[in-house]
Design goal:
The chain is an alpha+beta fold. It has helices spanning 26-31, 69-96, 101-123; strands at 4-14, 19-25, 46-52, 62-68, 130-135.
Length: 136
């Protein structure tokens, strides 16, 4: 069992702020992956990922994207499981305090909004995914 998930993609856009947009076809990325059955990203279409353009990438360049499986599953917990748990806890607490249903719903949604806003502010571009230029 490998500890790194690797996918190949093509640079589709390079922005003025030194960001490269890489598009990975889901067919190619998902077919050989051992996590294929458990992955939540199996709808149609391609995956678009933004990276800091550290290799002076140009549109049409091919890159290999790597992410540690541990980091991938950690991110799935942070994005899906924790917010669900937070919604459940905030709804139960709000309801147990005798709040009206509309207040309970509002508190639940607000708690998730604050959670994701906090994640966005704490993240500050610390990506654990790496990429390597394959060809121009």
């Amino acid at each position: 069992m490998t500890s790194v998930m690797s996918h190949t993609g093509m640079v589709t856009e390079v922005t003025d702020d030194s960001t490269a947009v890489v598009e990975v076809m889901r067919d190619h990325a998902c077919t050989g992956c051992q996590e294929h059955g458990a992955c939540t990203m199996q709808s149609s279409g391609n995956i678009r990922v933004r990276f800091k353009n550290a290799y002076d990438l140009k549109k049409g360049d091919m890159v290999r994207i790597d992410i540690q499986k541990r980091d991938f599953f950690k991110s799935m917990m942070i994005v899906y499981i924790f917010p669900l748990f937070l919604m459940l806890v905030s709804a139960v607490v709000s309801d147990s305090l005798g709040a009206h249903q509309a207040v309970t719903a509002s508190v639940t949604l607000l708690s998730v909004f604050v959670y994701f806003l906090g994640l966005k502010l704490l993240h500050k571009g610390r990506d654990r995914q790496t990429y390597t230029k394959i060809s121009s």
